[in-house]
Amino acid sequence: MTGGPSGGTDRWRPTAAHARAVVGGLLLAGVAVLARRPDLLVIAAPLLGAALWGALLRPTVAPVVRQTIGHRVVREGGVTTWHVAVDDAEGRAEDVAAVLETPMWVDGRPIEGQVVVGLREDGDAGLQFELRPTRWGTRRLAPAIVVASSGWASFQWRSASEADAQLLVALPEPSAFDATSSPVRVPGLIGVNRSPRYDGGSEFARIRPFQPGDRLRRIQWPRSLRTGTLHVTSTWADHDRHVVLLVDAMDDIGDSEGVGGRGSSLDITMRAAAALAEHHVGRGDRVALVVLTGRGVQRVAPGAGHRHLMRLLETMAGVQPTTASHDDGRVPRGFGSGALVLMLSPLVSPAALQRAATIADRGITVVAIDCLPEDIVRRDRDDPYAAVAWRIELLKRAREIRRVGAVGVAVVPWRGPGSLDLVLRAIERHAGSRSRRR
To answer: In terms of C-beta distances under 8 Å and separation of at least 24 residues, what long-range contacts does 31-34 make, across chains too?
Structure first.
């Protein structure tokens, strides 16, 4: 929990009700004396008595307010709690109310955002708001406005501090995903993926003639005795796969309805990237992240482990949806020759497909994952011209996809579990056959 004490105005100010009681009581008392109306004096007495009693109970010390948030980082759709603690040293405040205004894509409970409680006998009160982010991203939560009132609601104190503002980070909720192309990671074992290079591993590759430096335990005696020449058993080297998630956040196409509803292209992209990051980090792969936005390039160096996964997800949550005026198709630097690049993009811009082709031309394995919403044509039913325009745009897009497919770039739509099984198996078979030719 984070946060600290915050103060407000040092003075307790009289309320409008207290002022009306004083003014009304004095007027009625004056009229009763001048008009010799004892009945009016009887009516004025309770008003003046309540006003006098409230003035005698007026607090002189401002309460101390502490506002904290239970969890600063949650998944979209998760729930956290905003705590408001009010400490009244004098014990003269009777009721405390708090109002918390939530930003867009954050649902609060109570829905109206207001909580009223009475102070306990020890002069301490606690108020809580449940917060549920409905879309990934970083949201600024302004502190709740806290109002305390004294006896008979005569005097009021209101907080006036912005010191307790907090940032709520909603991590993308990973889409359902699973891939069966790579072996299951064994705890404590490094390098479960087969390398295109020979030797150093445990998976059988071929039997070849003996070379200086080969271990004697690798000698294949049946072949050696049959041919009269020493032969050894060669294996495939094991290595940790280097996966680069290249996220195209240049455009956000379609409307977002938050978690549980229809998603925009950027929603699909971020949730798919989160699923891929969790999958590959869980298998022990080294995962890097490169995010292309209209404001520049964001990078996370390759790494492994749970802490690295949280760093990846928090970087994704910090991406601001924008619409880039122009995508020059520039390829970021830093891709290793043995990396597997998974580019997630709606692929509506020819520059995005050209970027994938350029990466493939450098000898790097790249898979383009199509994150355009499936129902993009049917979304705006009130505008038939928009549907026609999208059909024409999709025809152009299909032509560009066929063009980059001809140069060796695999383009697969994101469909959750099993989306990449076929293409990853094909990549592994191609890498194995290429190594055997060598």
So the answer is: none
Beta strands 242-248 and 340-345, pairing class? parallel
Residue 222 located in a structural domain: yes
Cα 360-310-138 angle, rounded to 5 deg: 95
* Angle 272-278-281 from CA coordinates, rounded to 5°: 135
Cross-strand pairs, 286:
242
Asked whether residue 30 is assigned to any structural domain, the reply reads: no
Find the CATH number of the domain harbouring 68: 2.60.40.10
How many CB atoms are located within 10 Å of the residue 398 CB?
A: 12
Q: Which of 126-135, 154-163, 178-187 has the lowest mean pLDDT?
A: 178-187
Domain residue limits at 407? 242-437
Tens digits of residue pLDDT in 106-136: 999 988 778 877 766 556 677 899 999 999 9
Please answer whether residues 196 and 242 qualify as being in contact, where contact means their C-beta atoms are separated by less than 8 angstroms: no
Kindly state whether residues 374 and 276 are assigned to the same domain.
yes
Which tokens sit at 188? 């404590």
Q: Are residues 402 and 370 in the same domain?
A: yes
Mean pLDDT of 210-235: 88
251 with 235, same domain?
no
Q: How many CA atoms lie within 13 A of 167 on its CB side?
A: 8
Is 267's pLDDT higher than 50? Answer: yes
Give whole-number Cα distances, 326 to 35, 159, 299, 361, 363, in Å.
Answer: 83, 46, 20, 23, 27
Q: Are residues 420 and 308 in the same domain?
A: yes
Domains identified in the chain, total number:
3
Q: How far apart are CA 398 and CA 387, in angstroms?
A: 16
Q: For residues 134 and 215, state if they share a domain.
A: no
- Judged on CB neighbours under 10 Å (0-12, 13-18, 19+), 381 is exposed
- CA end-to-end span of the chain, whole Å? 58
pLDDT for the residue numbered 186: 35
User: Model confidence at 199, in pLDDT bands (50, 70, 90)?
Assistant: low
Phi and psi at residue 135, in whole multiples of 5°? -150, 145
Q: Say yes or no: 163 and 305 in one domain.
A: no
Please state, in angstroms and rounded to a whole number, the distance separating the CA atoms of residues 160 and 66.
Answer: 13
